[in-house]
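For the sake of transparency, this paper describes our internal protein records without simplification. Because each token names a local backbone shape, the row as a whole describes the fold. One such record is reproduced below, unchanged from the form in which we store it:
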Amino acid sequence: MISHRTVRASLIRAARLCLCAGLVLGVGTTGRPAAAQEAASAVQDVVLVDVALPLGDTVFKAARITVSGTRLSRDDLTAILKADSPEPWAPRLARLEAASISIPVLVSEHPGPGGSLQTVTYREVAARDVRAGRIAELTMAGAGVSVTGAHPGSGTYGRIVASDLDLAALVRLSSESGDGKGPVQRIYAAIQASDVTYTEASGVTIRIAGLEGRDFGGRQVPGGWNGAMAGLARGLEAVDPEMTAAERGKLAGTATDLAGAESGTTLEAIAFAQGGLKARLARVALTGVSLAPTIATLRRLANPDTAVTDEELRRLTPAVGGLALQDLSLDMPGAPAPVGKEPGRTASRPPATAKSGDPLATPAAPGAAPVHLALRSGALTFGPLRDGVPTASRLDLSGLTFPAAMVAGMPVLGALPDYGYADLDLNLVVDSAWDEAKREVAVREMTLSGRDIGSLRLAGTIGGLGPELFASHIPAASLLMLTATAKALDLTIQNTGLFERFLAAQAKALSLKPEELRQEYVAATQFGVPAMLGNSPAARAIGAALGQFVTKPGRLTMTAKAKNAAGLGFADFGLARTPGAVLDKLDVDAKVE
């Protein structure tokens, strides 16, 4: 099983590589004294050898660096890259000028928690048009990653390209302290990395076809980004339920310093695997991410006198505008195929062909039929937060496909395999919102539909729900029983094949012809349903509509609205002696189209 923590740690290590890519030419110093030269007045090429520079906890090493088309002498370059220079990095890097800079191999070593060491080896590093410490274009042919010690693993990067990279800003933000209130400094205009693969020692493999970022930057924070990240990592590693208020305040303050503004992330062609489990995702996009509520809560928690409550912890949740994904594919090992049948095949998809050298193309075990799940598209959007909980949300899943046998035994859906469905292709929509002024929740749409099945759509309004709905100390069940009222309900059933399959299966079980069983159902709905519901006009209308639907299954709609504007409460339902007593308090309409 892949844990969230494991995947998150892997992605963090992979993301760190992208940031390290921007550091490659902003650091470096000679490991031995360079030969003195007179200052050059003409454009020339300068070669530096055995360069090594510690930048915070990270050390960068290069056996050879070639600086071409520069007016800087060897002494000038040595002074710029000198590790122990009293001059700050920013003004030194601002003097860096060259037509190009090339490094065949650049190695970075960074110690991590638990005695781990991350080593990244970059290949064919090239910087073009370097002026005043800014690189017009930085490219790398690829990189290899190795992590030893705690959480070991290894990975690779394909081509990496960054544009308009500001080395001075990069080093200033990374290592120079600030108050977190200064101007935003941009590090690069754009960066791209392709073919990212990382494998944990546990066997989890993550592959991302491409990463892309634009306009990355930030503000200087106390201790610099490197110091703040190191402090936060140490704090999280040592987190303790008995942490003192002062310790908690320091940790919260550090996290606040690192928090940024609204942003979004898009990843494409992501894949991971563990054993026989493989997953691929064509695209995932996270939009409208704002840390404003998180920052506000962290600032409150930084005060040692602030009590840590469940509400405060929930308010740490960042605001998220939406999450969208496309073409999700998941393959899992299945049960061994029966003797005499071909293993490794489902009705929804043929078995994948393993490709040589592909860590994700793990063949299924002999005799096992892999289970394939897929989702064509999915979207989840959120409204504003109230105490860390969205006040509105919409979930939209399209083309959720999987073997029908997976739902065997479940309510409602569990009967589908008995009706001849081998694979299911479902769509789901859930859309709801809370109105504070009206103290009600509107279930604007709840629809489940399936290919060759039909659809079930519900919509309604629940009243009597105020801000206490978001209080964690009040059980949701108790709140609904005490205050909630049913105001309106709309039900729509559309048949596109399920009813006919249901009728055929039931008729076969009862040794009847389908039309004979249909007539029995018509009589039961037209006469039995009204009798059960009190034989009121509304009850007879419902029975008549059901009878028409059974006769010619198509589209059935029913609406019910409470006659009392406040709605029907729990007592109205609980104390009613018959269903008809409840029905008398509703305005009901039913029809078939």
User: Anything to note?
Assistant: The radius of gyration is 32 Å. Residues 1-41, 235-241, 337-365 have pLDDT under 50 and may be disordered.
